[in-house]
Amino acid sequence: MPDRGAGIVVQDHVREFFDAYDATTGPYGLPAEVLQYLDREGNVVSTVEYPLRTTSWDLLYYRLRANFDGLPSDYCDSIPGTEGRGMAVYDHGHTALNLEIVNGKVRLQFTDRSFRPCSINADLVVAADGPSSSIRGMLAPHIKRNYVGYVAWRGKVPEHEVTAATRMVFGENVTFFRMAQSHILLYTIPGNHGSVAVGERLLNWVWYCNYPESSEEFKQIMVDKMGRNCRGTLHMGQVREGPWQQQKALARETLPWPFVEVVEKTAVPLIQEITDVASPQASFCDGQVVLVGDALAGFRPHAAASTNQAALNAMLLGRLVQGEITLAQWERASLEYAATVAGKSIAMGNAAQFGAGLPDQPPARTKEGAPSRIPEPS
C-alpha cells in the first residue's frame, strides 16, 4: 500500500467511522490548523484558519485491516479481538467477470489470483471497486469515466530530507501556490509505519497540470516504463524518467523555492488522471447489489471527500442491514451526498485549472448526508 497511496484529509464521516468502529490504539492522523498561500518568492501572503486532520492511505488501510480481519502490522499497537464479531476474510487479487440473480441470490463469477474461474452466491454484493468499477460496468455499462483535461502529479518526501528553511515555511499547515491554470499544494502526513514523530513524517504534495487529451504531451506522460499506454493512474515506479525530468524542470521555472525542493527531492512520483464519473443509482437487483465510494461517484480530489464518502456509505449501509433505515433512504442519502460533493469538486477544479483560480477562502464546512440527517423517502 505505501507505493499506491497518497495523503488523505480526514473529514467528519471518517472521524465518525473510526470513533464507532476502530478498536486499535494510537493516532491515525496529524493536525493542520491553517491554510496558507505563497507567492512566487516563497513568502506567505495570506492565511485562513481551517483546522483539518491529515493521514495516509497506507495507515488507514492497515488500521482497517486490523479491525476487519486481524491483520498484524507495524501500523497498529494492538490487534482487536474477534470474540462475538464473526469471521471476516480479506481475499484480494480477484477479478469480477459477471453477476446474475439465481434462486434469489447474487451469483458472482470471478477469477482468483491464479486465474482460475470461481463463483460465489451472496445475499448482498457491495461494489467498492473504485471509479473504474467492474461491477458498475456490468450493471450500467453506459456509465464511463471522463477525463477532464488535467492530471495530478503527486509525490512524498521524508521530512528529514528537506532543509530547515523549507520545513519552516510549510510548518503544520496546508500550503498552496496558485498560478495561471495550475496549482500545487502540500501537507504533512504520517510517515513509515504510520509514524507521527517529527522528522519521520512525509511531506505530501499534489500538483495539478493541464494536458488536453489529444495533445502529444498527455500521450507521452501516460506511457509507463514498460512502454504501455495507460489510463487512470501511473503508480509509483511506473512514471518514466523523461517526463519526470521535464516536470522537475518546469518546477524550477514556475514554483516557489520550497515547492521546488520537495519536487526535486521526490524519488518516485505518480500521475493521477483527473476524471468525472457518477452513477445515477446506488442500488441494483432489488437492493442485492449496491455501489459505494468511488464506484458510486468518483470525485475530483479538490474537495478531499472520496474517503469521507466511503465512510458515510459504509455507516449508512450498516444502518440499512440493521433495519434502522430503508433501502430507499440509504440510496437517497448516498446519492444526495455524491451529487453535492461532485458539483463542489467540479466547480473548484474548473476554477483552478481553467478559470479565475481558487479563492483564498475555502468552502464552508457542511455535513451533507450525515447519518443523523437521513431524508425520509418520498
Report on the structure:
It contains nine helices and 16 strands. A hairpin with a 5-residue loop joins strand 5 and strand 6 (117-122). With 378 residues, the chain is α+β, with helices and mostly antiparallel strands. The chain is globular and about 65 Å long. Helices cover 29% and strands 27% of the residues. Strands 1, 2, 3, 8, 9, 10, 11, 12, 13 and 16 form a ten-stranded mixed beta sheet that branches.
**SSE pattern:** EHEEHEEEEHEHEEEHEHHEEEEHH
Span between termini: 42 Å
The dominant shape is globular
Helix content: 25-40%
Q: Using only CA atoms, what is the Rg? A: 21 Å
Residue windows where pLDDT falls under 50 for at least 5 positions: 366-378
Strand content: 25-35%
Tally of strands: 16
Based on secondary structure, the structural category is alpha+beta
- What is the number of helical segments per DSSP (H or I, 4+ residues)? 9
Overall mean pLDDT score?
Answer: 92
Largest sheet: 10 strands, mixed
Using brief descriptors, characterize the structure shown.
single chain; alpha+beta; globular; 378 residues; three-stranded antiparallel sheet; ten-stranded mixed sheet
Topology:
Elements: E1 7-9, H1 12-21, E2 30-38, E3 44-56, H2 57-69, E4 95-102, E5 105-111, E6 117-122, E7 125-127, H3 134-139, E8 146-158, H4 164-170, E9 174-179, E10 182-189, E11 202-210, H5 216-221, E12 233-234, H6 241-254, H7 257-264, E13 270-278, E14 283-284, E15 289-291, E16 297-298, H8 306-321, H9 327-354
Parallel strand pairs: 2-9, 7-15
Antiparallel strand pairs: 1-3, 2-3, 4-5, 5-6, 8-11, 8-13, 9-10, 10-11, 12-13, 13-16, 14-15
